[in-house]
Amino acid sequence: MQPNQELIRTIANRYAANLTLCFPLRRTSLQLARAIHANFITFGFQPRAHILNRLIDVYSKSSELRYARHLFDEIPEPDKIARTTMVSGYSASGDIALAQNIFEETPLSMRDTIMYNAMITGFTHSHDGCSAVSMFREMKREGFRPDNFTFASVLAGLAHVVEEEKECVQFHAAAVKSGAGSITSVMNALVSLYSKCDLLNSARRVFDEITEKDERSWTSMMTGYVKNGFFDSGLELLEGMDEGMKLVAYNALISGYVHRGLHREALEMVRRMVSNGIELDAFTYPSVIRACATSGLLQFGKQVHAYALRRQDFSFHLDNSLVSLYYKCNKLVEARAIFDKMPAKDLVSWNALLSGYVSSGHIGEAKLLFKEMEEKNILTWMIMISGLADNGFGEEGLRLFSCMRKEGFEPCDYAFSGAIKSCAVLGAYCNGQQFHAQLVKIGFDSSLSAGNALITMYAKCGVVEEARRVFITMPCQDSVSWNALIAALGQHGHGAEAVGVYEEMLKEGIKPDRITFLTVLTACSHAGLVDKGREYFDSMETVYCIPPGADHYSRLIDLLCRSGRFTEAESVIKSLPFEPTSQIWEALLSGCRVYGNMELGIIAAEKLFELIPEHDGTYMLLSNMYAATGKWEEAARVRKLMRDRGVKKELACSWIEVETQVHKFLVDDTSHPEAEAVYKYLQELGKEMRRFGYVPDTNFVLHDVESDGHKQDMLITHSEKIAVAFGLMKLPPGRAIRVFKNLRTCGDCHNFFMYLSRVVQREIVLRDRKRFHHFRNGECSCGNFW
């Protein structure tokens, strides 16, 4: 027996010696450990605990935890080392639940400070600060003494959940009392902790007391300054750093500038960094390219791209950032080329290109890419659903939302926002209400994105009171919330209220942005508040340093023209700092149509024929202007020009939701199953309304028809009239009729609905391309100003 035991001991020592070669860990360590493990199995060797522990340690530190666990489970009674190794391995891999299982199964007598440190570190890395602090307190309660690693880990965990200064002070005092208060790693954690609580003076005091500062010391202090917006202090700190540590500091400053929207400052820091001989690295590129993409600085972004190519710096993060840069700068071909050349793609890559397609309106390409994706996450579905809604494909958006649920994805608040936006596009009020109820049930009703989507949805479904109620009950509002409410009130003819909300927004300290001014200018235009609108327009540059764009100028032109102030409108166009765009000429042409200003209208139309010859709206507006004044030959000439150029007129279409089903109607529509009954009902309504004084305005029959009776018959077949009549037939008495139209409603229909609301004693809400009209008791919310 003695010789056999000696042989076994010799073999065991050889295995132990070979396993020693695995440390420190290097690329060949795992391969060597596997070979030794294979030897055990092949020759039936039963290793002792110290050899198994070493092998478990190699597997754990090489992220091969399933092999480590297999060996661990084969040990009848694992010792302290094996248990601690497994706890550390699971914690390091982020599988804190399995780490906790082994920890709780370990008797108190076998636990030690190292095992507690592993658990605290695991909770900290999982951003579970409460559990990290709780484990620290349990450790002390059970009589285990915290060491330097304990305090460094628990302070990092506390930073995730700390709310009061006294908590920082208490843990700082505990670290000092234990003797760990002067250790660099612990002091670094204290700097981060105080910075997280906005206690930068305390953070700086600890930083200055560190006798041997390492890279993390400088990074922690710099990060504290940057995250709290103290860039000047960060720049001052930068000057005192060793050259070898400055790259991390530059990256922190650049990232901080970008995060706060200070893109010019971020790019200036890049220039400074390069001029000082510090090269960009994998952490610099994403921040710099994001700054270029957001600022529209394509040329600078291209220079960064060329710099990366020269240095042969390639990574997922860089390629994904470049895809975003090019699509945000309207260079989809270049974005697709980068995507196609990527040696490997992750979900971020696919989602980035998908975002590019939907945000630029290339829905066809987006659909193809979406189908091509083998793997999708909730973000993929969210991008596609919102993209469909934003581009007017509401029905497809709702179908895709339903498909997402069938695929097993639980919608988040952003996905719900996309579905709610789809309801807004369709005017699907009942569906929108159902989504709102689901949000409340799930607990997403406090979500900012969902709340903003609900405001817009209710507004576009004609229920502005509900939109206002959602805004008031939101736990917090951002500029998007205020913009949505201002837009809602303006669209529904509550111009004075919209202006009041804008003024209230300023008092709340919310800075208006470009979208804010678009909404408030539109509100002023719809309400005829010319002077107030002009005042707001002028304040853009003089007060808020926001240069007006073509869209703002078009709102101003619309505002002036709707009030007949054409001389002022012409003066604004002549003084534009750029060539007038199609938006501006369209605003002028629309105003000319309202006031019959043929001379100026023809000039605007000619400009539009040059800029957007394929757009049907210009031909129709000019033709209608001629027809309204009886100039049928000129109207026919414009329509012939339209035909010769192959321009198709967009068909007028109106729709109404009845019991969650949307019913669509075209002009002179006979395709609906109940068309005959609807037309008969319309004739009866027309007779009743004539008794109240309604006279059909045949000037809005834009065809050369001699018979007045024939003209009246043509008016009665307008799509919005058919939809309203259908709603009156199908919806319960007292319920508001909500109809939606893709084009602007004509003057006769507007007059018709004013009389009809009085006859049937029902509110009629009509959303056309321009705005909402609320007809009640013979009056309209627009005050006949639209």
TrEMBL record:
Keyword terms: Repeat
Family membership: Belongs to the PPR family. PCMP-H subfamily.
Protein name according to UniProt: DYW domain-containing protein
PPR repeats: 112-146, 214-244, 246-280, 346-380, 478-512, 513-547, 615-649
Repeat found in the keyword field: yes
Organism: Brassica napus
NCBIfam families cross-referenced by the UniProt entry: PPR
Sequence ranges assigned to domain DYW in this UniProt record: 693-786
Gene3D superfamilies in UniProt: Tetratricopeptide repeat domain
Lineage: Eukaryota, Viridiplantae, Streptophyta, Embryophyta, Tracheophyta
Top-level lineage group: Eukaryota
One Pfam family, short name: E_motif
